[in-house]
Amino acid sequence: MSKMKELNRLIHDMEETAKYYLRLVDEFKKLLSSEEETVTKPDQSKPEPQKKIQLEDVRAILATKAKDGYKNEVRALLNAYGASSLSALDPKHFAAVLEEAGGIGND
Q: Within a 10 A sphere around the Cβ of 85, how many other Cβ atoms?
């Protein structure tokens, strides 16, 4: 009979341990969900400001492309936006020029 009592106590202890682990898992889930809410709230309320593209950014990319042997392509790109030189390029076209310059030499 003592073996049965011991086995019964062991089963009871295992059940209690399982319940404890389930409570622990629930607490971790709550903790994670509250962290996700805190992390996502600032992102939703304030979009990241887009970095303003400067002339120096465009100059660096185009100079690299020209140095790599794509001088004619760089000149054609500037001409497509109505500029004979980089200093004559309208700042509103900086983003588009950078995007198109990324494709130069990547054929």
A: 9
